[in-house]
Amino acid sequence: SDLPVTYSVADPNVAVVGTSGMVTLLRAGTTPITASQSGDSRYDPAPAVTRTLTVLPRAITLRANNETRAVGESNPVFTHTLALGSMVPGHVRTVTLVSPANETSLPADGPYPIQFVAVIIRDPLTEDVTTNYLITLQPGQLTILPRIPVTISGAEVSGKEYDGSRGAVVDWSLAELEGVGAGHEVSLVTGGAVAEYADANAGTNKALSVTGLGLAGADAGRYELGPVLLLGGAISPRTLGVEGLVVGVRRFSGETNVVAPLDWSGHSLANRAPGEGTNEVHVVAPYVDGKYSSL
């Protein structure tokens, strides 16, 4: 007959049916749907027909993206990809990923897993619809790379006059890092650098050590400083002066090559290195070899 058919859904949270018989799926689950047709003066009511509707969860696969970092760095922000399937338009997923690796983790113990700990999917009304999805999770891997050693070239040591200290002055303006990969952003930080000779004595081509250097830049964590390439520095002897020396008076006797009488009682030494020597130091053999030039 041409009499209208009506539909009823046992669980309207799973699906609803319009007057035209169009079914709208709302969430995963199972519900009976019954179709019935009332009679009229010419037709008896039709027997009701019930069928079971099963709405399967929407299958998607999420894959954690593999990451790398250098030893000693913090873990990067982990990301993921929708590898298989698709989501209902307007649905938004929130994913939390973690790895057991930390700043003290070693490359030899890796790679370390990147694991999903939470996945939440919400509809445009912010309702949690995660149960409407059949989610397959694929973990990723975190690879920890050993730091790459880099060396420094082009630094120059400025010579100095003996001053009793081991401190050295280094010109870093032409220094370059060797061993940095193409496209990597790494620069040398010299603001805290301290250069010292092995000892304070005067000499040439003297070895020195440098501490307090650092690396900066987006890729600095991938590298570590190797040996500092420096030329030997020089400490020149310090020239001493004598003040207060009194030349005594001597009568002319006709002799040649006469040694003038000198009164050293009030002499003092000028241009001594800071903290070294006193006015009482005798001038005949007062100085450590190599520190001061001859008077």
Structural class: mainly beta
Rounded to the nearest angstrom, the distance between the terminal CA atoms is: 133 Å
Return the average pLDDT rounded to an integer: 86
Radius of gyration: 44 Å
Q: Count the strands?
A: 27
Q: How much helicity do the residues have?
A: under 10%
Low-confidence stretches: 279-290
Main sheet overview: 6 strands, mixed
> Strand fraction band?
over 45%
Number of helices: 0
Secondary-structure element string: EEEEEEEEEEEEEEEEEEEEEEEEEEE
Mass-distribution shape: rod-shaped
Description:
- The protein has no helices and 27 strands.
- It has strands at residues 5-9, 15-17, 23-25, 29-37, 46-55, 58-64, 67-70, 80-84, 92-98, 112-122, 133-138, 140-145, 148-158, 160-161, 167-171, 176-178, 187-189, 194-197, 203-206, 208-211, 214-216, 223-230, 233-236, 241-243, 246-247, 262-263, 268-270.
- Strands 13, 15, 16, 18, 20 and 22 form a six-stranded mixed sheet that branches. Strands 7-12-10-9 form a four-stranded mixed sheet, with no helix packed on it. A three-stranded antiparallel sheet has the order 1-4-5, with no helix packed on it.
- Strand 2 (15-17) and strand 3 form a beta hairpin.
- The chain is rod-shaped, with a radius of gyration of 44 Å.
- The relative contact order is 0.11.
